[in-house]
């Protein structure tokens, strides 16, 4: 499908932009035909006992496309959380979409769950108020979606999302519902952990305002847990959603009002009958037995003694649902909602006495927007030399209406204006940018992450006017250089002058990116020593120029940083904060930067001599940043018991063939031979390396690390290369016929054993 936007720059010239929508695949296969059907499961309150195991096993046997887990997972922030995650992964599969929304027992330590069970559905919302497991929505399947599922966390301390009428979060929900209707998505469901009406033990903890917003907007399903029971309501309605039949119900509250329910229907009814509430807190934790008789009449079916989950099958015209009991012959319930002949309900306005402000901070994008032609602008350009990263950035922002009419370029305020578009159109040729991107700029890989460490300290005469790193240890390139090996980008020749490459050479980048794609590497962790360093200059070239070019062979490659200074000094909290601010404003805005739960990821190298102080500094600095970064620290003795836990951990130790700190990281190394005259510390052995790679692939680790891609001075590189030796007569390095000419050996091993790219 193509979209056309009219852009009028200051000169009055009308430029037509033809923007193609790009979809991308995930490790889990998503169905894509609205004429078919999808199936998903829902439950909450699992704990970690036998009934939890039975529920997850039942989900596995039900043939589901995904699961919505409505909070209260393991009831633990420690080792049980990892055990719980691993049971889900081992039963349902490492790429199965097990979509989380926080409960009151999870909200304080969500990363214990999201690290191993991240979002795996590619249509997750990306607006500024969306955050995985806290407040977000997704459409399923990708193409011609059948349902939008909106997940939120009302009053889950310490997340503190509130949904009073007219608040930003309330308006976000309203816009998300309206956006689904505008996009002609047949069904809308909202899900959360806590309740409002229930015949169990709980009170209205989410608030009547947002609960009635669901009914006002005529969502089809409300999915909850929290009460450790199964309950299914009659269709709910109020005077806003059904003014003819529910005029006597101004609001649905905990006090039963017969005008608020449609009891005339059986177990099969039209969608126009009202909104159906399903509470399934029977995932495995001890069940509740209390029966609030004052609210019984809201519910068509309920059970206080049955464990299980609810299965939903969705087509364009029907939802069928069944409670799947963990015990054969136990309580069951099923119901069917048929799409009313009038089609999806239109967007219902908020009651006039408290209208939604016209300036909603995070509007839900329509799938087929037709923006009006903006006024002619004459902005004053900023001094930013790189107004926008690529035509793809411009396209994505336009599609999502991230548009401003000020003079600030995109990297300044994160919004597009017309001059950004004019800039891109004028510089397509000179910057090598693509007007027809084939990869969505919102793409991010999902766990487990296959990553490699990358070094950007290389310069050469042809590109930079002199050598860097190759010349270390008193070497004189291209005659001698700092490595027992020579990179081999051109197998047909032995040419140190060209093969001693520069990271600032785009042709070298294309060679490396192509090899990373061939090796199925998803993430590159790039060495960084601070603002203005040679590594910083090279990283800027890659992220803000090379990745956006039309002939980049691997636009899905994502980049992170390896913060090296922690390993060579003890940077203060202020220094770390300043560096994070620099990274956030210069690099993290890029769509090519790796993000987890919308947080840019940064790895930290350390010597572990001040381990406890180091973790405290990084926690304090990230707190000052509003916890906006996803921090991955290097392990040390006793790291698991440190009170200042980061988001994740890794190990960097390429002098060993492999090593693991599960469930965080697993690394492999091809060899280690530092060019300092010492003996080879870890001999290159392809068989041993391949066995290590196979073990890494099968391991339950979030980070699967190849150490390294191109650390030539230490001899740990997997990119193609050959062993060399010094000819004492000529004083020059030359190929060593008796040495190891490994060429593409290690790339081939990775290609054979790593899973397909997303």
From TrEMBL:
SUPFAM superfamilies xrefs: Metallo-dependent phosphatases
InterPro entries attached to this UniProt entry: Calcineurin-like_PHP, Metallo-depent_PP-like, PAPs_C
Pfam families in the record: Metallophos, Metallophos_C
PANTHER family from the UniProt entry: ACID PHOSPHATASE TYPE 7 (PTHR45867:SF3), PURPLE ACID PHOSPHATASE (PTHR45867)
GO MF annotation terms: hydrolase activity
The Calcineurin-like phosphoesterase domain, residue ranges: 63-230
Biased composition (Low complexity): 340-365, 373-384
Gene3D superfamilies the UniProt entry points to: 3.60.21.10, Glycosidases
Source species of the chain: Candidatus Gottesmanbacteria bacterium RIFCSPHIGHO2_02_FULL_39_11
Residue span of region Disordered: 339-384
Top-level taxon in the UniProt lineage: Bacteria
Organismal lineage: Bacteria, Candidatus Gottesmaniibacteriota
Protein name per UniProt: Calcineurin-like phosphoesterase domain-containing protein
């Amino acid at each position: 499908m193509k979209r056309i936007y009219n852009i009028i720059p200051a000169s009055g010239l009308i430029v037509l932009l033809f923007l193609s929508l790009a979809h991308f695949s995930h490790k889990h296969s998503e169905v894509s035909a609205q004429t078919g059907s999808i199936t998903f499961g829902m439950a909450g309150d699992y704990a970690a006992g036998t009934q939890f195991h039975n529920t997850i096993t039942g989900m596995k046997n039900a043939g589901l496309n995904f699961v919505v887990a409505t909070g209260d997972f393991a009831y633990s922030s420690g080792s049980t959380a990892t055990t719980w995650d691993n049971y889900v992964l081992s039963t349902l599969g490492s790429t199965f979409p097990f979509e989380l929304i926080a409960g009151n027992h999870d909200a304080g330590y969500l990363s214990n769950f999201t690290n191993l069970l991240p979002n795996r559905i590619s249509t997750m919302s990306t607006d500024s108020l969306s955050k995985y497991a806290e407040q977000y929505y997704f459409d399923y399947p990708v193409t011609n979606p059948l349902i939008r599922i909106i997940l939120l966390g009302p009053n889950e301390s310490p997340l503190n999302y509130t949904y009073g009428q007219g608040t930003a979060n309330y308006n976000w929900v309203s816009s998300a519902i309206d956006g689904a209707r505008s996009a002609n998505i047949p069904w809308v469901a909202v899900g959360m952990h806590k309740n409002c009406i229930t015949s169990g033990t709980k009170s209205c903890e989410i608030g009547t305002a947002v609960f009635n917003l669901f009914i006002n907007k005529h969502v089809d399903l409300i999915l909850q847990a929290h009460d450790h029971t199964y309950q299914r309501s009659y269709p709910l309605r109020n005077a806003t959603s059904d003014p003819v039949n529910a005029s006597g119900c101004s609001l649905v509250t905990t006090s039963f009002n017969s005008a608020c329910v449609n009891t005339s229907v059986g177990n099969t009814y039209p969608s126009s009958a009202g909104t159906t509430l399903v509470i399934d807190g029977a995932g495995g934790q001890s069940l509740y037995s209390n029966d609030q008789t004052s609210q019984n009449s809201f519910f068509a079916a309920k059970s206080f003694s049955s464990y299980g989950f609810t299965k939903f099958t969705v087509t364009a015209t029907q939802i069928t649902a069944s409670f799947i009991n963990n015990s054969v012959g136990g309580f069951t319930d099923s119901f069917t909602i048929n799409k009313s002949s009038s089609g999806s309900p239109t967007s219902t306005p908020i009651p006039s006495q408290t209208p939604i402000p016209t300036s909603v901070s995070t509007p839900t994008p329509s799938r087929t927007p037709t923006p009006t032609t903006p006024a002619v602008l004459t902005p004053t350009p900023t001094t930013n030399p790189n107004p926008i990263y690529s035509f793809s950035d411009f396209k994505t922002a336009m599609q999502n209406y991230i548009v401003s009419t000020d003079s600030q370029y995109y990297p300044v305020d994160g919004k597009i204006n017309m001059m950004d578009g004019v800039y891109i159109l004028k510089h397509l040729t000179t910057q090598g940018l693509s007007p027809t991107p084939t990869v969505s700029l919102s793409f991010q890989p999902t766990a487990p992450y296959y990553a490699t460490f990358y070094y950007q300290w290389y310069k050469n005469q042809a590109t930079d006017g002199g050598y860097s790193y190759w010349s270390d240890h008193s070497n004189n390139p291209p005659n001698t250089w700092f490595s027992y090996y020579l990179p081999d980008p051109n197998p047909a020749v032995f040419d140190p002058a060209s093969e001693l490459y520069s990271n600032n050479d785009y042709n070298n980048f294309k060679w490396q990116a192509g090899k990373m794609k061939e090796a199925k590497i998803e993430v590159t962790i790039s060495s960084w020593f601070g603002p203005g360093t040679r590594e910083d200059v090279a990283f800027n070239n890659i992220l803000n120029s090379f990745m956006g070019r039309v002939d980049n062979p691997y636009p899905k490659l994502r980049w992170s940083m390896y913060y090296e200074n922690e390993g060579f000094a003890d940077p203060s909290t202020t220094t770390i904060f300043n560096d994070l601010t620099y990274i956030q404003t210069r690099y993290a805005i890029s769509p090519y930067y790796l993000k987890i739960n919308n947080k840019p990821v940064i790895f930290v190298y350390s010597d572990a001599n001040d381990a406890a102080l180091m973790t405290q500094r990084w926690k304090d600095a990230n707190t000052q940043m509003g916890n906006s970064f996803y921090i991955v620290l290097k392990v040390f003795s006793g790291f698991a018991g440190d009170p200042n836990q980061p988001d994740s951990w890794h190990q960097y130790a390429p002098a060993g063939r492999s090593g693991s700190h599960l469930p965080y990281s697993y690394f492999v190394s091809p060899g280690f031979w530092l060019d300092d005259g010492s003996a080879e510390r870890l001999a290159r052995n392809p068989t041993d390396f391949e066995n290590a790679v196979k073990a890494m692939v099968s391991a339950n680790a979030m980070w699967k690390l190849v150490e390294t891609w191109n650390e030539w001075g230490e001899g740990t590189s997997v990119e193609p290369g050959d062993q060399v030796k010094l000819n004492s007569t000529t004083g020059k390095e030359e190929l060593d016929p008796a040495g190891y000419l490994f060429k593409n050996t290690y790339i081939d091993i990775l290609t054979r054993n790593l899973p397909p790219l997303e």
